[in-house]
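assembly run, all chains below
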Amino acid sequence: MTRMQGIAASNGIAIGPAFLYRVELPDIPVRSDADPTEELERFEQSVDAVRTHLESIKERKRGQMHADNFEILDVQKELLSDEEYGDKIRTLIQHQGRNAEAAVQEVTEAVVTEFSMLEDEYFRQRAADVADLGNRLIRNLMEIADVDLGDLTEPVVLLAHDLSPSDTIGFELDKVAAMCTEAGSSTSHTAIVARSIGIPAVVGVGTIDVREGATIILDGNEGVAIADPDDATLAEYHERKTRDEKRREELLAKAAAPAITADDVHIHCVANVGSVDSARTAAEYGADGIGLLRSEFLYLERPRLPDEEEQYTAFSQIADCLPDTTVVVRTLDVGGDKSVPSIRMPKEENPFLGHRAIRLTLEEPDLFEPQIRALLRTAADRDVRIMLPFVSTLTELRTAREKIGTIHASMTAQGTAVCDRPKIGIMIEIPSAAVIADAFAREADFFSIGTNDLCQYTMAADRTNEKVAELANFLDPAVLFLIKRSIDAAQNAGIPVAMCGEMAGSVIATPLLLGMGLREFSMSPSQLPEIKDAVRRLAVEDCRPLVDTCLQCATASDVRDILQDFLDSR
Amino acid sequence: MKETTLTVKHKVGLHARPAAKFVKAAKQFDSKIQISNITRGGDRVSAKSLVSLVKIAVACGHQVHITADGSDEDQAIEALTEFIVNTMEEQP
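ok done. output:
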């Protein structure tokens, strides 16, 4: 029995066989006296198998994925017969007596090395496609269970070093019972995906040394993963799992009902979504609307920018998952740790402090205009609002408003159906915006406090760096001060204020935020039932005194203790 | 031998899927077809290999030089010019 402690990234308990995603291959024997005819035959068989496999993925995903997402599969298929890849492997086998797997490895490594040295980010990323292809071929040749998520019959616990959007886009997510990664934090991609589809996840467990198929207990509530549990542990967790599921079912049953506090204040619990699928999940989990639609999903894994029509279709589809509600769409937020292939971004010394999000899009009409046009059209007969990310100065808001005004006027003049007046709000995620929130509140139509970035910029602690991530704590009094300031500014100006960071979905923070006057909480769909339940148990009146008490604390852990005591006493 | 110099105006250049299509187009001909990226400088590589094409990393605005040598060199140059000028331009 091996126990691994990590960060609880998504709630729930799962028990299932381990599925090692893209693990290191075993040592490959290298021979120079293999029988060319035999080896060539083996190689061609594996090429056929891999080709068939790629076809089947394509077939399965047809209709679910945008055509551009097939690109990787097409490229891989082409490589199998490429003179510099497939043919080179054949030559090695025929003329150097190399065994098939060694030949594949040799050529794959050479191409990956060459691609990795390319200057251009997008070309460089193709190295991963070649590596993945080589991996598939070698697995097939060595008869290492070439399991693909789509071929699985029972849900697995997926173990990986770390997962990126290009990894998860190919997953058959209904075959994943839980996820566990060696790296990552509670705001990393793995955590966000797990929460959005409602499966347990533990991240940052350090080295995973587990064999394929071993029984894994994954406790996303406590951040624990246990491999090869003994009978007693297994029995205990089966029981915990049943209890946990029962509780979640009860919560889910009540999730559709509005969240009204014990003293009759209606709290809007809305969802953060990043795809049509997650919008559907949000509807199932009782979201009162969408508080944050991350538009980046339209740009992932494709060489071309999405056009206006495609964006319009996607925004409409998502908005229609939750009819008659408010949908807040964040304009493209790339840069920092988020890059997309269709946008060239020069390497920066400090990408987190660099040319990203609104700073980039305001300068690039090709990025800004089609998106705004699509949003204004979606808003013609729906309550769709535009949210600007990463605003640090009033000038940015004014420039954006002016540009949107011009686009709106020209569309109206052309007779295109658009909303009467665009509603433009900002993310409060840079400390400068929180500090002068009063000035912003006079010009923005709404605020949404993005606590993940607000914490990391206030505390100067990179949340993707495990060594300092702990500092970027939303309960730190300095962060609380800025949050309070933003909420007060919005209320004084009479504009709506929401919160869409991790803090909004954390029960520990709910009473404090209610006390501060927050009335709209936006979170991952799977967190909705729990937060709604917490809201119903609390009374805003009782929460108010917490604000001063917490703001007077010196440390985040003092704040946590006070809030925990408060919750325990309910 | 036939040759031509063209500017790639396609927004993301000649990579991945467009590159795979270009390679497919080139493979239809018997002639030996080579391509080099004038803007970046460097190797003249086979236009019939996706790996080679990715390695010369043709981005938007880059000039490429294409040569064809063989029985169907005229048709090859014509078809590949057509591909770079028209087919790729259709995709904004």
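The two ends of chain A are 38 Å apart (CA to CA).

The interface with chain B takes residues 68, 71-72, 74-75, 78-79, 82-85, 111, 114-115, 118-120, 122-123, 126, 130, 303-305, 307, 341-342, 344 of chain A (CB under 8 Å).

not gonna interpret more than that til we talk
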